[in-house]
Design a protein that fits this description.
- The structure is a single chain.
- 41% of the residues are buried.
- A seven-stranded parallel sheet has the order 3-2-1-4-7-8-9, with helices on both faces. The protein has a two-stranded antiparallel ribbon with strand order 5-6.
- 45% of the residues lie in helices and 18% in strands.
- The chain contains nine helices and nine strands.
- By secondary structure, the chain is α/β, with parallel strands linked by helices.
- Keywords: Oxidoreductase.
- Its EC number is 1.1.1.35.
């Protein structure tokens, strides 16, 4: 798919980290980018910097997401590229030790359901609402292509660590969406893929650099090559290639410097 000047894109979680880098890369390629985020200040600042638009969107609320797409389409036109980076989740072991009682406690079903909503259900929500808009748009090329949707999974989908029963299983679910959704949408010319980033230098991870330099050095050394955390711009580079290359469809990409996560 040729990324034309003025083509519209939507990036969730575009105010920071991987989403922020993706939004900038798409804007640099000439696209009009709508950032969906709940961080108004950072989102508005970044949207202004890249010549895009910002929309306060809670990915866990159906109406908020629909309103966001409606506003983005009114401002920029029908999105042809959607990149979903936003998520919400909790952490905990299936069964853990409770210091207060001296016994064991179970990770609550409610906590698990929160993560499933914030990762898996939200991914379906974003992808399906975007796909409906794309389905009603004119094809962009002789292949009949109408758009590209990229979801963000994680290496935890395959290498889930201790305490990641919610995150790992729900990110695996994101990967599980890809092929059946790509096949659902094949006659409409809409591609669906996912990226599984490894350890990336996002704001959350960069905070460790000053707080715990030893742990920071250990994390960098744990990556086979290159021996460093991934740069958000490297994630964004893959996002651009997925959007551009019409033969990439129904695929899940590890982007991890060859790391394989240990149990903890």
């Amino acid at each position: 798919m040729k990324l034309e000047q003025g083509m519209a894109a939507v990036v969730t979680g575009g105010a920071s980290g991987l989403g922020r880098a993706s939004a900038k890369a798409l804007a640099d390629a000439g696209l009009k980018v709508a950032i969906f985020d709940i961080n108004d200040e950072a989102g508005e600042e970044h949207a202004a910097a890249i010549g895009g638009t910002f929309h306060h969107v809670n990915i866990m609320d159906e109406q908020s997401v629909q309103d966001g797409f409606d506003a983005a389409r009114a401002a920029n036109g029908q999105e042809r590229v959607t990149v979903h980076c936003a998520m919400a989740s909790k952490r905990g072991k299936t069964i853990g030790f409770d210091k207060e009682t001296g016994g064991y406690k179970r990770l609550s079903t409610e906590d698990y359901a929160f993560g499933a909503e914030g990762i898996l259900v939200a991914s379906y929500r974003i992808a399906s609402i975007s796909a409906l808009g794309m389905a009603n748009a004119e094809p962009l090329n002789d292949d009949g292509e109408r758009g590209s949707i990229t979801l963000t999974a994680s290496v935890a989908a395959q290498d889930g660590q201790i305490g990641q029963v919610i995150y790992g299983s729900c990110k695996a679910g994101v990967n599980g969406l890809v092929l059946p959704m790509a096949r659902d949408l094949m006659d409409l010319g809409i591609r669906v893929n996912s990226v599984m980033p490894g350890i990336f230098a996002t704001p959350l991870m960069l905070g460790m650099k000053d707080r715990n330099p030893a742990m920071w050095a250990q994390l960098n050394a744990s990556v086979p090559f290159p021996k460093r955390l991934g740069e958000p711009e490297e994630f964004a580079s893959l996002i651009l290639e997925i959007a551009r290359n019409s033969y990439i469809n129904g695929h899940q990409f590890r982007l991890d410097g060859a790391i394989r996560m240990p149990p903890k």
